[in-house]
Design goal:
Layout lengths: L3 E2 L44 H6 L3 H5 L2 E4 L8 E4 L3 H16 L9 E2 L21 E4 L6 E2 L12 H8 L3 E3 L7 E2 L2 E4 L27 E6 L8 E5 L8 E9 L2 E7 L8 E8 L7 E6 L8 E6 L4 E5 L11 E7 L5 E7 L8 E6 L3 E5 L8 E6 L7 E6 L8 E6 L4 E5 L11 E3 L7 E5 L8 E6 L2 E5 L36 E5 L4 E5 L9 E5 L6 E5 L8 E6 L4 E4 L10 E4 L6 E5 L8 E6 L4 E4 L10 E4 L5 E6 L8 E6 L4 E5 L10 E4 L6 E5 L8 E6 L4 E4 L10 E4 L8 E5 L7
Parallel strand pairs: 1-18
Antiparallel strand pairs: 2-3, 4-5, 5-9, 6-8, 7-9, 10-29, 11-12, 12-13, 13-14, 15-16, 16-17, 17-18, 19-20, 20-21, 21-22, 23-24, 24-25, 25-26, 27-28, 28-29, 30-31, 30-49, 31-32, 33-34, 34-35, 35-36, 37-38, 38-39, 39-40, 41-42, 42-43, 43-44, 45-46, 46-47, 47-48
């Protein structure tokens, strides 16, 4: 894609916390950290990650920072966190202004701080646990989790706006549930007039000097000429791995692997068109526009021009918009980094030249004014650099990790370079690449070391042997942060959807965790067997159904609620209909599998007729599914036996004999389907689990664990998975 240019002023840097609870209120920020249990939590429960950095390291610490706040003209008093108090005070100022205009909403019931997990049985800590959320008049503004959720509220729009203008997210705006009583603070940057970002809470650990390994494992991107950044993109507060490399002039490949799941799942992958090339340009990731997502900065070292491509929010494609372009206020740089130096919530540019001179360029004014310039004594030829807050004063310090020895240096405050800064002899290898991030959430920077497709995390804080360093962000019940199979073509890739018992079709727009937009319509009546197929050869799958009670089949050529325009008699009771392109003419038709005979009857037209061909193929206790398993352009027959997960396949045109393919699928399988997930022309299996609502994709028709996992659709629900190609068009 060609990048468009939309210039914006630099805003909140990634160092500034964003606690926005829902994407309906803006870019969604950090989710609450995981707790050991649900419900009410003991005050001794420890807190890790960005929430701990800002609000406190355990329940006692949070309690010690609570203050009283009373809603405007109410007799109710609640406890809120002192760092959120300016936002609550601004709410009252806004409500006082409304009162002066004759507007008043009485608050008779209010609840604030409560050290507990969220409603609904999750182990994720509630915003109430930190004193940043308040519930107002619950009886008149109830919580509702119906499908779809129903908003019940007596709050006037001006009252809600008074909270929103002070930096709060309203639960009445949420999509999947409605919690109209609930207001939660989004963070300092959303509250007008909020002072400088507070410094971090005291780390929970003492310094350890990067000798102990907290994690080691393979990176999802594998070995190669990757560069790395470490930034949270999955919203759990734990750093994710940004692996990027030049794939040619003007193109950067980016793959982001999540911290939860041990960096095994790629949650975002992009080929980004940029101006520049390897050798002449450098790149880094930092949040320029204040949307809590790291943007791509590409610098032309010959001209010192930095072009910033936004990791955008909403309908725009990621990294296709140039959101800023500036000329650096210094020359001869070789290393570029971005971060908030002076806690003004505006990102600065950190530039290191070949002699080790670091210049910090103010974000205000477009990186022209030099805030700090000092010779550190650490040359890029001998060191690897990144930014971290070593001393917890809120200002980022420059770390240099040696390439010639196993030392880590910190330019603490920059005033005298490294001459008075701390330094450690460590176990960090002198080869490979390094980045900083707080892996274990203790408030101290850890060193991520990359070499040969492996990442090893060396801890900055002292942790007891056997400590669970991941419990605050990782749990087996979490949905995988998986971008799904990559559609590389040249053919169109299939998508998945599901049909409810009431014959409501829900067609999903992609196979990534980040999708979730569904096209919904009704087709048929309860008791019908739903199908999808490309009946007219236009490349779009549309609905069909078989009605066992009458033996009739129905089909339509648009994805909309309608009376079926195509109708014909088809099969007998007990037959199982399958859709597919059986002769390679580009059009799907319906055929039937008759379990009583173990025989497949093939028809190539959507009309009442005798089968054009048939063949025997059986597996006791199995159910059929279809797909082009050998890539010859014709769909084939598969059988799946739920009792042991055994799958057999017969290719169209193959003669009698053993199956053309046979293997076992995962134990999670309740239903097996098939589709062309990568666009290579070959359909491979996926299986659906009704209990957890997940699809498990294999990219080859062989035995093995799922290559990708997608949570899509209801949990513990009886649905019929469907497969096809379609486009989701939203107004």
């Amino acid at each position: 894609m060609v990048a468009t240019t939309i210039l914006v002023a630099p805003s909140v840097a990634s160092a500034d916390p964003d606690f926005t609870e829902s994407e309906t209120c803006g870019t969604a920020g950090y989710r609450g950290p995981l707790a050991a249990t649900g419900g009410w939590l003991p005050l001794s429960a420890e807190i890790y990650g960005p929430w701990a950095d800002f609000f406190g390291r355990n329940g006692y610490s949070v309690n010690n920072q609570l203050v009283s706040w009373r809603p405007y003209r109410s007799s109710r008093t609640v406890q809120v966190h002192s760092r959120a108090l300016p936002a609550f005070q601004l709410v009252n100022e806004n409500l006082a202004a409304e009162y002066a205009r004759g507007n008043y909403y009485p608050v008779t019931v209010a609840y604030g701080h409560a050290f507990r997990a969220v409603t609904g049985g999750s182990h994720r800590m509630s915003f109430h646990a930190f004193g940043t959320a308040v519930d107002i008049n619950p009886a008149q503004n109830p919580y509702n989790a119906d499908d779809p959720p129903v908003l019940v509220t007596n709050m006037p729009a001006w009252y809600v706006k008074a909270w929103q203008d002070a930096g709060f997210c309203w639960g009445g705006d949420w999509k999947s549930i409605k919690d109209a009583m609930h207001f939660s603070w989004r963070g300092p940057a959303t509250t007008p007039g909020y002072a400088a970002t507070p410094i971090l809470q005291t780390p929970v650990t003492s310094l350890a000097g990067y000798r102990n390994v907290g994690f080691t494992g393979a990176t999802a991107s594998g070995a190669g000429d990757w560069e790395y950044d470490v930034v949270d993109r999955s919203r759990d507060g734990a750093p994710d791995i940004y692996a990027w490399r030049w794939v040619g002039p003007g193109e950067i490949r980016l793959e982001i692997a999540s911290g939860f799941g041990d960096f095994e799942d790629i949650g975002i992958r992009e080929n980004i068109s940029v101006s520049g090339a390897a050798g002449t340009h450098g790149a880094t990731f930092a949040d320029y526009d204040g949307d809590s997502r790291a943007d791509l900065w590409v610098v032309d070292w010959a001209t010192e021009v930095v072009t910033i491509y936004g990791d955008t929010v909403g309908e725009a494609a990621r990294f296709t918009q140039v959101i800023a372009q500036h000329t650096l206020g210094v020359n001869n740089g070789v290393v570029l980094m971005g971060g908030d130096y002076n806690r003004d919530r505006v990102v600065e540019a950190y530039v290191v030249d070949a002699n080790g001179v670091v210049s910090i360029l103010a974000g205000v004014g477009g990186f022209q004014n030099v805030l700090v310039q000092v010779a550190t004594g650490a040359r890029p030829a001998w060191n690897r650099f990144d930014l971290g807050d070593y001393d917890g004063d809120g200002s980022l310090d420059l770390y240099a990790i040696s390439k010639v020895g196993q030392q880590v240096y910190v330019a603490n405050g920059f005033g005298t370079g490294y001459s008075t800064g701390p330094y450690w002899s460590t176990n960090v290898p002198k080869t490979g690449l390094v980045q900083l991030g707080d892996y274990d959430g203790d408030g101290r920077a850890d060193v991520y070391h990359f070499d040969g497709g492996t990442v090893t995390v060396y801890l900055g804080g002292l942790r007891s042997p056997g400590s669970d360093l991941q419990a605050w962000f990782d749990h087996p019940d979490l949905n995988p942060w998986d971008a799904g199979p990559e559609c590389v073509g040249p053919f169109r890739c299939d998508k998945v959807g599901y049909v409810k018992g009431n014959l409501e079709y829900n067609l999903r727009d992609n196979l990534s965790w980040e999708g979730g937009e569904y096209h919904e319509f009704f087709f048929g009546v309860p008791g019908d067997q739903p199908l999808m197929g490309d009946w007219d050869g236009d490349g779009v799958s549309t609905p069909g159904m078989f009605r066992p009670s009458s033996g009739f089949a129905y089909a339509a050529n648009t994805n909309a609620t309608q009376i079926a325009p195509i109708e014909f008699f088809f099969g007998i009771g007990g037959d199982i209909p399958l859709s597919g392109d059986w002769n390679g003419n580009g059009r799907d038709s319906l055929s039937i599998y008759r379990p009583s005979q173990g025989r497949f009857y093939v028809s190539n037209l959507l009309q009442t007729q005798f089968a054009e061909s048939s063949f025997d193929f059986s597996l006791p206790g199995s159910v059929p599914f279809a797909g082009d398993f050998n890539g010859d352009g014709k769909d084939d027959l598969g059988l799946y036996r739920a009792s042991d997960g055994y799958v057999v396949m017969r290719f169209m045109g193959a003669g009698p004999g053993p199956p053309d393919a046979a293997f076992y699928v995962g134990s999670e399988a309740h239903t097996v389907i098939a589709g062309d997930w990568t666009g290579d022309g070959v359909d491979t299996v996926a299986w659906h689990n009704d209990t957890d609502g997940r699809y498990y994709f294999r990219l080859t028709n062989t035995q093995g664990a799922a290559d990708h996992v997608l949570r899509a659709g209801p949990q513990a629900g009886a649905v019929t998975p469907v497969v096809g190609t379609w486009a989701i068009i939203t107004p």
